Amino acid sequence: MKSRKISVHIADDHKIIIDGIIAVLEDEEDIDVVGFSTDGTELINWYKNNNKCDVLILDINMPEISGVDVLYFLKQRNLIQPTVVLSSYDDIKLIKEVLKLGVKGFIAKRCAGKHIVNAIRAVIHEESYFGPSIQELIVKNFSNKTSKVNNEISQDGIHISSLTDREIEILKLIADQKSTREIANALFISVNTVETHRKNLIKKIQVKNVVGLALYAVKHELV
Amino acid sequence: MKSRKISVHIADDHKIIIDGIIAVLEDEEDIDVVGFSTDGTELINWYKNNNKCDVLILDINMPEISGVDVLYFLKQRNLIQPTVVLSSYDDIKLIKEVLKLGVKGFIAKRCAGKHIVNAIRAVIHEESYFGPSIQELIVKNFSNKTSKVNNEISQDGIHISSLTDREIEILKLIADQKSTREIANALFISVNTVETHRKNLIKKIQVKNVVGLALYAVKHELV
DNA sequence: TGTTATATAACGGTTTTCCGTTAACTAAAA
DNA sequence: TTTTAGTTAACGGAAAACCGTTATATAACA
Fold first, then answer.
1. Which residues of A touch B24 (CB under 8 A)?
2. End of a domain among B140, B160, B190?
3. Is residue B1 part of a domain?
4. Distance, angstroms, CA A196 to C1' C22?
5. Is A17 within 8 Å of B16 when comparing Cβ atoms?
6. pTM here?
């Protein structure tokens, strides 16, 4: 009656995390780590070489080619498969994006290792698994849906989900060292409009200046 | 003839890394993980409660109280002990700083897990252990000591070691969203001087504006 | 003893950011 | 159908950042 082991590929730019996850999974008899990648390019090449696994453990924040980029690559080739996404920070927008890409597992890195095991077992059966902090976030997001306090400050600062798409777009460009004029030209809007957006961002995020915006962008992995 | 196990405490704000290291160390019969902390405050409290371990595995980049802060705390209380420092980025200034604080082990997180085991075995015997990339960096730093190309651009951008202490000090304050006037007041120097430093920083680091400086500061864990 | 690196400071001019406020248009939601 | 959220836009004034350049003092180094 014993079925085949679950094969897992791990992608993370920190080798130490890969080794850690491998070590955690070694204790699980039904799970087998069949490969790993330390950046997005490596992972994509792994797929291009027709390698396969049952579950992909995917870090979002990798240099050059990010985890999200990899997911878009997989979607393009109809290779989307059971995946557990790892992220340093909770970000409801990111969760929504990877959810749309068919990802069912989502875990913050600060969570304990056992959650990875749970997540693997869940996604292999097409079930969803969210780490504890993510669950909270989703619940909060749903309950806030109709409330008017969406833009108010929570105990740990404003959440990125309260920024509009346009604001995030402009925030990214600011964090890319673009001046207001450059942003205006890039988006075909007025300099005044960009200034308004910047002003609103500074107010919403509650920082002092563009430096604060850049730090926020880094923290939420927008750069 | 068999001696006591080496007791280890692990401090890292990513629980998943802690669990990973624990799993890696589980395979080692002579090493025992006796505790862990997910931030600097927790770790300091652990020491305040008179807990002890043979080797401390210490992540540098933790929120609120950083690994370096913890080392200063330990130094103040003459509690400096065999320590392996973990860092996401190589930074010769950081290495020098922790070396001065008595740290003998230094590993980049991108390194494989086995290096941690090697490092633990080294520092417990008062020997030094540097991960592969760190070794390279140290060698490069020594060979560059007398050369004049110290400030030139390497393939992956300028290295933090080419910034002076004062520049790093000012860079930190800029990344802390302080204005030029605020920095001048804080350091009891002229606004003009701070502007000169900022200008030099932008030129040296090859960025466009303060946003670029902030990003650089984050990348090199100065914030 | 020159040479170099570092920290300090000044200055005039330009550009950009910052701040408050107002307002029009649109699409979606109550 | 009003209300709300989001995007767009404008304006005037203050503050800050940016840029090139120059210059002095000091300490360390060759």
1. 19-20, 23
2. B140
3. no
4. 12
5. yes
6. 0.49
